C-alpha cells in the first residue's frame, strides 16, 4: 500500500512541476478534475462520425484540381510559369500530409473521443499526430504565403520601390516565422521524443522530461499566421488603387485578391480553438477536433485563393473562347457584339474589318482619339490605322507581333538600292496604355520608323 502511495505522489509531482502546472485548461488536469470525469467507455464511446472527414477529403480534391488547373494555365496556356508556381508545387506535399493527418486524427488517433475515453495507445498516437499536423501546417502555409508574395513581386516589377520593399520584408518575415516555429514545435520537449510520451506514465517514471510552454507556442503560431494572412490580403489594395484602370476593373481585382480574406477567417477560428484547448478546457481531444478541421481548411483555401489570378487564363481559354465558336464574341475595341467568326483571335491574324464592325478602324490618314483598351495594340499599315486586341492567351507569344512588324524582302531582280515597298506592307505596331491617345507626335514617330529610302 505504501508503494502505491509513493507511485501516486511521484505521478502528481511529474504533472505539476515546472511549466506543467494545472490551470483552467490544458494538457494536465488537476486531481479534482480527474475525479469528476465519467468512467472510461472503451466499448462504445461517444464518437464524432465521418462527416468532417468527408468534407476535408472533398476540399482536398477541389484544392488539387485547382492546383492542376493553375499549373496547366501557367505552363501550357500562358507559358509564363515562375518561382511562385514552384513554391506552390512544393507546398502541395505538406498540404496532403496536413489534410491526411487531420483526417487520421479525428477518425482514428484519438481526437474523435473525449479525453476520458482515451486508451493507452491513443494517448501516444494523439501526440504523434499532433506533431505531424503542426509541422505540416507550418511547412505548407509558409510556402504558400511566400509563393503569393513572389507573385506580387512578379507583377510589381515596374512599380515604386516602396511597395517592392514591403513585399520583400513580408517574404523574410514569413520565412523567418516558418523556420523559428518549426524548430520550436519539433523541440518543444527534451528529449524530443518525450513530446509523444507526455501522458505515458510508465515512460515518465523512467525518463527525465522537460518541456516548454506548448500552449503559448501553438497559440503564437496561430495568431502570427493570421496576422500574416491579413497583411498578404491587404497588400494588393495599395497596388490596385494606383492602377489607371476603370473602377469596375479595380473592384474585380479587389474581389480576386480579397478571396484570401477567407483564409483569415479560418486563421481566426484556429486561434480561438487553440486558445480554448490549452487554456479553457481539459477535454482537449474533444475540443481540438474543431481546431484540426479549421487548420486543414485554412491550408486548402489558401491554395485555392492563391490560384485564382492564374485561373483567369485557364477559364478564358477553355470556356469563354470555346463558347464563342457558334455564338457571338465581344469586340476587344468596343462594347458591341460581332459574330464569333470575327473574333479578336482572327483579327490578330490580319483579317480585314470594315468600320461597321469596329469603331477603332481609321482610314485615309485620320487620327485615333479614343481611349485604347488595356492590352490594346495600335496597328498602322500605311495610312490605315486600327486597334487590335492583344489576347491574354498569347501574351507570351510574339508571333503575331513579328508578323505585323516584319519588313518585306527585297525583290530578287530590279533592286536599285532603294526600298521598294509593296503596297500596304509598311506596318508599325505600338502597344498603348489604356489612358493613352494617338496624336500627331505618334504619327510622326510612326512616319520616322516607316521611312525606307529618304536619304
TrEMBL record:
This is Rhodopsin domain-containing protein. Belongs to the SAT4 family. It is a multi-pass membrane protein. GO terms for cellular component: membrane. It is found in: Membrane. Pfam families: Fung_rhodopsin. Residues 332-362 have a biased composition (Polar residues). PANTHER family: INTEGRAL MEMBRANE PROTEIN-RELATED (PTHR33048:SF129), PTH11-LIKE INTEGRAL MEMBRANE PROTEIN (AFU_ORTHOLOGUE AFUA_5G11245) (PTHR33048). Residues 444-455 have a biased composition (Basic and acidic residues). The keyword Transmembrane helix applies. Keywords: Membrane, Transmembrane, Transmembrane helix. It comes from Epicoccum nigrum. Residues 69-317 form the Rhodopsin domain. It comes from the Eukaryota. The keyword Transmembrane applies.
Amino acid at each position: 500500500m505504501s508503494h502505491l502511495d509513493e507511485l501516486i505522489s511521484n505521478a502528481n509531482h511529474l504533472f505539476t512541476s515546472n511549466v506543467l502546472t494545472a490551470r483552467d485548461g490544458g494538457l494536465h488536469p488537476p486531481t479534482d478534475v480527474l475525479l469528476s470525469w465519467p468512467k472510461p467507455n472503451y466499448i462504445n464511446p461517444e464518437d464524432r462520425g465521418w462527416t468532417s472527414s468527408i468534407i476535408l477529403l472533398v476540399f482536398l480534391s477541389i484544392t488539387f484540381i485547382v492546383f492542376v488547373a493553375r499549373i496547366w494555365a501557367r505552363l501550357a496556356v500562358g507559358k509564363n510559369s515562375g518561382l511562385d508556381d514552384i513554391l506552390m508545387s512544393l507546398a502541395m506535399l505538406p498540404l496532403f500530409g496536413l489534410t491526411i493527418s487531420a483526417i487520421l486524427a479525428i477518425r482514428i488517433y484519438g481526437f474523435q473521443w473525449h479525453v476520458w475515453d482515451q486508451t493507452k495507445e491513443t494517448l501516444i498516437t494523439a501526440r504523434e499526430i499532433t506533431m505531424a499536423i503542426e509541422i505540416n501546417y507550418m511547412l505548407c502555409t509558409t510556402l504558400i504565403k511566400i509563393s503569393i508574395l513572389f507573385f506580387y513581386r512578379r507583377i510589381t516589377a515596374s512599380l515604386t520601390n516602396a511597395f517592392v520593399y514591403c513585399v520583400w520584408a513580408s517574404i523574410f518575415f514569413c520565412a523567418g516565422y516558418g523556420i523559428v516555429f518549426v524548430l520550436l514545435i519539433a523541440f518543444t520537449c527534451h528529449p524530443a521524443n518525450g513530446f509523444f510520451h507526455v501522458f505515458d506514465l510508465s515512460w515518465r517514471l523512467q525518463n527525465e522530461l522537460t518541456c516548454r510552454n506548448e500552449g503559448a507556442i501553438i497559440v503564437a503560431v496561430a495568431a502570427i499566421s493570421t496576422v500574416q494572412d491579413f497583411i498578404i490580403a491587404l497588400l494588393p489594395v495599395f497596388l490596385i488603387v494606383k492602377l489607371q484602370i476603370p473602377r469596375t476593373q479595380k473592384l474585380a481585382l479587389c474581389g480576386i485578391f480579397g478571396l484570401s480574406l477567407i483564409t483569415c477567417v479560418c486563421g481566426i477560428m484556429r486561434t480561438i480553438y487553440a486558445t480554448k484547448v490549452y487554456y479553457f478546457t481539459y477535454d482537449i481531444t474533444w475540443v481540438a477536433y474543431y481546431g484540426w478541421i479549421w487548420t486543414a481548411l485554412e491550408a486548402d483555401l489558401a491554395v485555392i485563393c492563391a490560384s485564382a489570378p492564374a485561373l483567369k487564363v485557364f477559364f478564358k481559354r477553355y470556356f469563354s473562347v470555346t463558347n464563342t465558336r457558334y455564338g457571338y464574341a465581344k469586340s476587344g475595341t468596343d462594347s458591341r457584339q460581332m459574330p464569333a467568326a470575327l473574333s479578336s483571335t482572327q483579327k490578330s491574324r490580319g483579317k480585314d474589318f470594315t468600320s461597321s464592325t469596329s469603331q477603332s478602324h481609321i482610314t485615309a490618314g485620320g487620327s485615333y482619339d479614343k481611349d485604347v483598351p488595356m492590352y490594346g495594340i495600335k496597328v498602322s499599315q500605311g495610312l490605315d490605322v486600327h486597334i487590335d486586341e492583344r489576347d491574354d492567351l498569347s501574351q507570351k507569344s510574339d508571333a503575331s507581333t513579328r508578323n505585323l512588324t516584319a519588313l518585306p524582302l527585297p525583290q530578287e531582280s530590279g533592286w536599285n538600292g532603294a526600298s521598294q515597298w509593296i503596297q500596304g506592307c509598311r506596318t508599325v505596331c505600338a502597344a498603348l496604355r489604356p489612358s493613352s491617345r494617338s496624336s500627331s507626335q505618334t504619327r510622326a514617330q510612326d512616319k520616322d520608323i516607316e521611312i525606307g529610302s529618304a536619304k
